[in-house]
UniProtKB/TrEMBL annotation, chain A:
GO biological process: organic phosphonate catabolic process
Superkingdom of origin: Bacteria
Pfam families: ABC_tran
Protein name: ABC transporter ATP-binding protein
Domain ABC transporter: 28-277
SUPFAM superfamilies for this protein: P-loop containing nucleoside triphosphate hydrolases (SSF52540)
InterPro entries tied to this protein: AAA+_ATPase, ABC_transporter-like_ATP-bd, ABC_transporter-like_CS, P-loop_NTPase, PhnK
Keyword Chaperone applies: no
Alphabetized UniProt keyword annotations: ATP-binding, Nucleotide-binding
Gene that encodes the chain: phnK
A GO term, aspect molecular function: ATP binding
Species in which this protein is naturally found: Robertmurraya siralis
UniProtKB/TrEMBL annotation, chain B:
GO biological process: organic phosphonate catabolic process
Origin: domain of life: Bacteria
Organism whose genome encodes this protein: Robertmurraya siralis
Keywords assigned by UniProt, alphabetized: Lyase
Molecular-function GO term, any one: 4 iron, 4 sulfur cluster binding
InterPro entries: PhnJ
Organism placement in taxonomy: Bacteria, Bacillati, Bacillota, Bacilli, Bacillales
Protein name from the UniProt record: Carbon-phosphorus lyase complex subunit PhnJ
Length: 281, 281
């Protein structure tokens, strides 16, 4: 990675609060806050001035304790949630010159359908459980402008094959699948439109260890093969260690530390990170 | 004529409110306009949406025809006709060409409509995306953003399941290149009749409290794929056993005496007219 490289995704001062805020907590920096929660009005400052870049072909890991705002960040980047303030730029959209959060919801849909793929922590949010698995993949292809059934069926089959879903089960609905299989269908769906940017939110959480390992292997090999950039959220440092080139550590909605993954694991600076790293050893 | 009721059953204010919604529907072809669906002396789901449109529009000089699945004599059609003629005294007819106002369930008449006529279709489920997206708030957004992947996805699923588009009726259409619309449960055979029709076509859903419209000469295209084109039912080599017509929608029946499959016109008044004009053999 050089200084000249243009980031695929650049996020600047992203803020997301749940709740209106009050005079006591305004700005999310006050003594009425317990962690990132206002005791007076109940507002949660889920993301506070989050900034980072993701470079081509890079896997950026995000770790942090439960409730630190990781999923909220991912939802904002995929436009599932509206940000309170902040900017995001994607090099594949308008030369990276337009703040995505200022675009119309129709444009945001376009960006999501053509430039991004996402795997949700909860497969219920990422899949239509009653539609066929291949239909779930076709949904994203149709949204990206495809209108040829034969082409979509063969692309879907190829992708399901890649994530090791047996071809003869492609017309089955994900509701019949195990958790690991559902995550793999989500991955296939997310990859279907060749997105330069993939957002993965706790892809392996809740899966048993052997399935976890196979999903992680899959992501690793797909990433190498396709050269996509990935933002990978996990509260599990083991997953981060295995996949991420660089890592951000989040606490109470803020990025408290960032750097090369090896560096963070070997020489954590912040007390929270130190605790996290020690618990891994 | 029963004069204990106001002309056409409703008070003038109610009729005006329905007509106002109808005007809006005509101004935005294919867009579902909410209206305050009224209590009726027939149960919701039995054509109350269509009936309210008919009652709001009918004038003393109108000639009314009511059909239910191609038949002027079904119990439903007869009851609706009775209610309207009892409270208005207007003339009723079975001849499509003589009617100025035609209320229909599940069919568009075979006789081409003219610009002097209004066709009112009864609609059970106005939302073409409902199976794909259960939430009304969400489907509203999808329409607003012209995001119709879901409509094509439902057709894709049918192709995966049955090897072809299996919509027996209510095959979705794109109106005026803008809104995807449920044409009501008319057979696919009738879909092309909606395109550039000379008559005003109004659709009313009583239970769901929606009206929508296809104004005269509006472009109406049935959804399909590049490699799975929309096709109306084809009755190749078949003809009506009564009147002999070939290019009409035929019902398939089993002759109880001979156990043979036979075909006859679904549009019974058209069948009779044909028979009369040819002269009984
Ligand atoms: N829709 C919502 N409405 C209100 N508060 C929310 C909402 N979603 C998340 N929050 C709050 O925002 C904070 C951050 O939640 P988030 O889901 O982003 O955490 P996370 O880092 O992904 O946690 P986990 O590791 O458990 O998945 C939490 O305090 C949560 O209660
Ligand atoms: Mg989370
Ligand atoms: Zn507050």
């Amino acid at each position: 990675m050089t200084d000249f490289e243009v980031p695929v995704l650049s996020v600047k001062n992203l803020n997301k609060q749940y709740g209106p805020g009050c005079l006591k907590c305004r700005g999310g920096e006050s003594s009425s806050l317990v962690k990132n929660y206002c005791q007076v009005c109940g507002t949660v400052y889920a993301c506070r001035n989050v900034s980072f870049d993701v470079f081509p072909g890079e896997v950026l890991g995000i770790v942090g304790e439960s409730g630190s705002g990781k999923s909220t960040l991912m939802q904002c980047l995929y436009f599932d949630q509206e940000v309170t303030s902040g900017e995001a730029y994607v090099s594949d959209y308008e030369n990276g010159e337009k703040n995505l959060f200022q675009e119309s919801s129709q444009q945001q849909r376009y960006i999501r359908n053509h430039i991004m793929g996402k795997v949700y922590q909860n497969p219920l949010l990422g899949l239509r459980m009653n539609f066929s698995s291949i239909g779930n993949i076709a949904e994203k292809l149709i949204a990206a402008g495809n209108n040829h059934v034969g082409m979509m069926e063969s692309r879907g089959t190829e992708l399901l094959n890649k994530v090791h879903i047996p071809v003869h089960r492609r017309k089955e609905a994900p509701k019949n699948f195990s958790g690991g299989m559902q995550q793999r269908v989500q991955i296939a769906k997310a990859l279907s439109n060749h997105p330069p940017l993939l957002l993965l939110d706790e892809v392996t959480t809740g899966l048993d260890l052997s399935v976890q390992a196979s999903v992680l292997d899959l992501i690793k090999s797909l990433q190498r093969e396709l050269g996509i950039s990935i933002v990978l959220v996990s509260h599990d440092l083991g997953v981060i260690r295995m996949l991420a080139d660089r890592t951000l550590v989040m606490l109470e909605g803020k990025v408290i530390e960032q750097g090369l993954t090896d560096q963070i694991l070997e020489d954590p600076q912040q007390p929270y990170t130190q605790q996290l790293v020690h618990s891994l050893l | 004529m029963n004069t204990t009721y106001n002309f056409a059953f409703f008070d003038e204010g109610s009729k005006r409110e329905i007509r106002r919604a109808t005007l809006k529907a005509i101004a935005i072809p294919g867009y579902q306009v909410p209206f305050a669906s009224r209590e009726m002396p027939i149960g919701r789901g039995w054509g109350t949406g269509g009936l309210q449109l008919t009652l709001s529009l009918i004038g003393m000089k109108d000639v009314l025809k009511v059909i239910d699945q191609g038949s002027d004599e079904s119990v439903n059609a007869v009851n609706i006709k009775k209610l309207v003629s009892n409270t208005t005294g207007v003339e009723v007819t079975e001849h499509t060409s003589k009617a100025t106002l035609i209320q229909s369930r599940h069919r568009i008449p075979e006789v081409p409509l003219t610009k002097e006529q209004i066709l009112v279709l009864q609609v059970p489920l106005p939302e073409p995306l409902r199976y794909y997206e259960p939430s009304e708030t969400e489907t509203k957004k999808l329409h607003a953003e012209k995001e119709y992947s879901g409509a094509w996805l439902m057709l894709f699923e049918q192709i995966m399941k049955y090897g072809g588009m299996a919509t027996g009726a209510d095959h979705p259409v794109l109106v005026h290149d803008r809104y995807v619309m449920a044409p009501s449960p008319i057979p696919r055979f009738d879909n092309p009749k909606m395109n550039a029709n000379e008559a005003l076509i109004l659709l009313g859903a009583g239970r769901e409290k929606k009206v929508y419209a296809v104004p005269p000469y509006t472009k109406v295209v049935s959804l399909d794929f590049e490699d799975y084109l929309f096709q109306a039912e084809i009755f190749a080599d078949k003809h009506c056993r009564i009147c002999g017509q070939t290019d009409v929608f035929l019902d398939e029946l089993v002759d109880e005496l001979t156990d043979e499959t036979v075909y006859q016109c679904n549009d019974t008044s058209n069948c009779l007219e044909k028979l009369n004009s040819v002269g009984v053999k």
